[in-house]
Structures
1.
Amino acid sequence: MIVIERVSELREHCDRARAQGRSVGLVPTMGFFHAGHRSLMRAARAENDLVVVTLFVNPTQFAPGEDLSRYPRDLEGDRSAAEIEGVDMLFVPPVEEVYPDGPPRTTVHVAGLTEGMCGVGRPTHFDGVTTVVAKLFSIVGPCTAYFGRKDYQQVAVITRMTRDLELPVKVVSRPLVREPDGLAMSSRNAYLDAEQRSAALVLHQALTAVADAVRDGERDASRLCDAVRAAVAEVPQVRLEYVEARDARTLELVERITDDTVLALAAQVGRTRLIDNVVLHTAGSAVEADLGMVIHEELS
Ligand code: AMP
């Protein structure tokens, strides 16, 4: 595996690979790798000739007062995890390499999909994400890019951006990966103390109860969201920011669970913001609830 810092170098490697008829797989990340990131690297490895992982804690997607300065970092650990997963190239650019002229004057904004859900509490976040991902897509060029459904809204927004701008990238979403006790894996889980961590389990428990209720025939979105609110209210350390049922593709609010719906939430546990979701596919009385998966095997 090679570690590179220069945009021009990354572009050259990707262009050369494609000129040789090799396919390119891209996994954009902010580092501090866990099994969720690694599942994306594995998928990219299985399906492509050249696997590129980018590790960039993108300042423009953090608002003032958010956790940019304390975001967890472990370059050595990340380097060895990526190596174990068979990654070919780890792109770790300094901020000045990505934004040589200061903050970008050009912004990619995906209207509609970015305004609700996490967009309410983080109104500038998605423009930072789409702008940097568009930039990565431009540098890497035609490729397959892998994203996790933990950040469900993010994948929907990036998918729409890619279609709207005809970017030559196939966007693939992969399952949400959980800790064995159900907590959605996140680099931000490192902020939680033991008590907060166990309090945070209510989020997964509440979503599991949603899946059960839908399997039992409940289709009313507000009743399902109320049940989540009631469960979370039992745990004083956890403050729910939102819980909503939305069309799984357009992210429009829905009143009933029909076909493909995502029931997503965000919550604050102490100073840590966590997100989680369940994707519900219904066809008549048949229900498939996608809560993601636990990776049991030892990864390192
Ligand atoms: P991040 O480093 O948090 O920006 O995440 C980089 C990529 O990993 C994004 O596509 C995330 O959706 C994905 N990811 C983060 N956590 C998980 C998880 N628990 N399961 C699956 N994918 C994840």
2.
Amino acid sequence: MIRTNNNFNFLKGSYLFSEVARRVNEYKEKNPDVEIIRMDIGDVTLPLCKAAVDGIKRGAEEMSNKETFHGYGPERGYEFLRKCISETDYIARGINISSDEVFISDGAKSDIGNFVDMLPSNARIAITNPVYPVYVDANIMAGRLPEDEATDIENKGKIIFLDCTEETGFLPKLPTEPVDVVYLCYPNNPTGVVMNRDELTKWVDYARDNSVLLLFDSAYEAYIRDENIPRSIFEIDGAKEVAVEFRSFSKTAGFTGVRCGYTVVPFDLKVVSDNGKQFLLNNLWNRRQSTKFNGASFVVQRAAEALYTAEGRSQVTEMTNYYIENATLLYNKLTEAGMKVFGGKNSPYVWIKTPSNISSWEFFSLLLEKAHVTSTPGVGFGSTGEGFVRLT
Ligand code: MLT
């Protein structure tokens, strides 16, 4: 028989959103006339804004001309887009990030998954619980198992969960044992809670004091309306020495089907290998990307560039305002209905405690069958998500 990667044995049978989709489809097949309201996966519903479509057209036009056609592009992305990102998302906000610290990709999910290539095989990885399942699954695929399942910890590394509960306001506490890497995501997926400046500063200080790499997923930063909430981890002093930031145009500009995101790996972030050799993580990530990735499509990068024009920016704000209004409506109506609701502010996600302590999957079925609303069961995001569902 052909042998395979044993680590897959430790994954759950299917990816969370595939399982939700399977159950929803099964229900739809049995009840073809029922109109279902989708509030499960954080997908967008509005079409692309005009600026993005014009960007795609411009890119397609350039590709159709001998003089402006592009073949393989730079693996780290075209300078025209990296410059817009560095100037608009960072320098204009007082954060000194240069275009060469920005890497364009086909989305934050890929970069987050691929970043495990950069971690030592025996790394101790701290991950919040509940959490976006990609952080956990990608590490399991690389041989790092959750602490209670890890058998050969010395060689394989492990995952340590930082429980986030109602009591902690769904925020993690600093690890009590040594770790090498911490994944943070704010505004949070799945709970929708945000991290304020003091809280984030605590994590940056901790990372600097303990030589810990922070992998900061800020895919939902465009939903932050409160000026006191940091939109980037690089707003915090010293973060450039310890943090990598992942961002996406998916939830910002409705690019879930277009595919474009970016990762910022600052030049200040220095790493060391077991033989004492020092590197810039930026150079290592570039080495990784140039080996395994040929860059995001030129046309898509033109579409993303167009989001940075004045009209693009205002169209994007209009779109995110619409999703925020929906989240606010959900939050208010569910609260009025007597439910315990979290998130929903500065975030597209609303996190609800199930009534009468019924399980996440039971409430998922109840919502589907009685209200024809789909949700994502909290337990799918981790053990502490049991007794909750996420709506979006
Ligand atoms: C979610 O629903 O958690 C996200 O949309 C999934 C993703 O971004 O991959």
3.
Amino acid sequence: VQSPALALMTFPAPADGPAHRLADATAPALRADDLAATRGDGIFESILMTGGRLHGLGAHLRRMQRSAAMSGLPEIDVDAWAAAAHAVAAEHPAVPELMVKLCYSRGIEGSGVPTGWLLAFPNGDVTRERTEGADVLLLERGVSSDLADRAPWLLLGAKTLSYAMNLAAQRHARAAGADDVLFTSTDGLVMEGPTSTLVATYGDEIVTPVPEIGILPGTTQERVFAWARGRGMRPAHVKLPVEQLASADTLWLVSSGRLCVPIRSLDGVARRFDAGMQADLLHHLTTVPDGE
Ligand code: PLP
């Protein structure tokens, strides 16, 4: 098994030279008392590289900055992380789809110094879901859509390293014979998937839930909206009641790793999707530079 490529960040950054250094991913790199390991206290980003391009790098780094601010972590140096992301990607042997993961934790307990590291590894094979679609279950997230504002300590909408709940929801769906999950709020709104954003089309309208309800603003969703504008569609961020899912033309779960996965059934009810449109969107997301 090929091991990932690894880069470690140095804080504070050296005055001369880059803030990262490449390291051996099979050797110890993280201390056992790092708050990433003991508390999941940190944030991350996962960025897809195809054809030598890190898709949406700028958007990912802006979101990382936002997650850092929400979590009370020291501000990140966006240029230093961008340089490290390019370096770790270049270190990995060429593959059709490479994932670059940026991790940033509160560091060793009591030290006051954050820890940062980056991994590059091949993306998993998601061909089946991209072409055939996914069976999705609606699951309760247990929060109301106005909670993010009132309870910032819940870090709703920050991309934290605490993904145990997200993965548990996906395991629950798989144990029930489905592929993935769409979370709902206690007041009946559609939220997001455990690792994806929902996008829906209604005629020439294309919508996604507003981030203010306590979900992660998606970078792939932004790229889907750019594609849709090019087709003359009208994009909007909305509060989407669960009942309105039934009348959508197409439902997608979109994310950096899987790009766009059409929902082919929701809670066991079969749904249609336009295979031509899916192929066109996938082609756009895989090949069109996004200016970053
Ligand atoms: N929502 C959550 C909770 C996620 O974890 C992710 C990505 O993993 C997304 C949405 C989609 O974000 P992006 O398209 O930027 O990968």
